[in-house]
Amino acid sequence: MNDLFTAPSVDTAPSISSSAMIVDFNASVYTARKKDHKASEEVNHANSADKGIANVSKNLLGNCAELQAIQKFVGNLRNLHYSMTLPWSDNGSRLITTAAFFKYNDDMTRLIDEGWDLVRAFGDVYEWKIMDAQATNGSLWNRDEYLTKDAVMQKFSFRLNYTPLPEAGDFRIDIGNEAMTQIKSKYAAHYTTQIEGAMNDLWHRLHDNLTTLARQLDVNEEGKGNRLYDSVFEQALNLTEMLGTCNVTQDTQMEAMRRRLEDVLHGTNLEQIKNSPTFREETRTKLTAAIAALPSLDM
């Protein structure tokens, strides 16, 4: 198998600022959890344990369906954000290509609007849930621990921001030529490393997904096929599309793999595979060959 990425020289570091941008997505959710200091002390004392060994954390609102719906929604939204973008920096910024931008932005803004609808629904019942908690939390209930509705609503936020991706040699500071050369050289190396990391992440995700799908397509000695999951198959289709939309370096190997997987998966669905043992085996064989052709990434 071939190496994925050959680092370019400083003078030829890939310029992708016109084909990609940086995206930051953040979501904050009210947890409704609080440490009960009195209960914690009682537990430690009852068990002859030092202070701080055991900590009692209580759910102020109990099993609040409206809050749980928000928490689950935000988790799914973060997963969508990660699935449609590539890693870029340690602070959580991600890379989105212009080819993938419009679908990503449409999906995320639509879902953020849905998230705010869930937040408003929670706000409508918040004060009632405080009264419900009085009945369920017993002696742990303390009215002073509950924020006002306005304060709680400020705990929720959805933030989606885009910033341009700078060129590898984009510096606007007035320093000596020698220092400028050193900084440009270091940033070009960093720039190349970040691009390599983003592309490697996509290759790794594809490898893991195809390996899982090929295993599910396998048939045991009794001739019974393993269970197939729609989510795994759909992810294979999505990642195949990303090989095109996220190929910011115009890597020919990535484009060749995209075409290869399109030939295998395009127009195919799980019902066809389930209903035809022959087609199932043909698909598994082609996917296994595709996996073997993936670049070497210490996988």
Topology:
Blueprint: E1 20-28, E2 33-35, H1 37-46, E3 57-59, H2 65-84, E4 86-87, E5 94-97, H3 98-136, H4 149-153, E6 157-164, H5 177-217, H6 230-245, H7 252-265, H8 270-275, H9 277-292
Antiparallel strand pairs: 1-5, 1-6, 2-3, 4-5
Helix pairs in contact: 2-3, 5-6, 5-9, 6-7, 7-9
Number of helices, where a helix is a run of at least 4 consecutive DSSP H or I residues: 9
Number of strand elements: 6
How much is the average pLDDT? Answer: 82
Radius of gyration (CA) equals 26 Å
Q: What is the count of structural domains?
A: 2
Strand content: 5-15%
* Largest sheet strand order: 4-5-1-6
Q: How would the global form be characterised?
A: globular
Helix content: 55-70%
Report the end-to-end length measured between terminal Cα atoms.
12 Å
Series of secondary-structure elements, N-terminal to C-terminal:
EEHEHEEHHEHHHHH
Fold and architecture overview:
The protein has 299 residues and is an alpha+beta fold. It has two domains: 17-32 and 64-164, 2-Layer Sandwich (Alpha-Beta Plaits), CATH 3.30.70; 171-292. Helices cover 56% and strands 10% of the residues. The protein has helices spanning 37-46, 65-84, 98-136, 149-153, 177-217, 230-245, 252-265, 270-275, 277-292, and strands at residues 20-28, 33-35, 57-59, 86-87, 94-97, 157-164. The chain has a four-stranded antiparallel β-sheet, with helices on both faces. A two-stranded antiparallel sheet has the order 2-3. Strand 4 (86-87) and strand 5 form a beta hairpin. Helix 2 runs antiparallel to helix 3 (98-136) and helix 5 (177-217) runs antiparallel to helix 6 (230-245). Mean pLDDT is 82; it is low at 1-15 and 170-176.
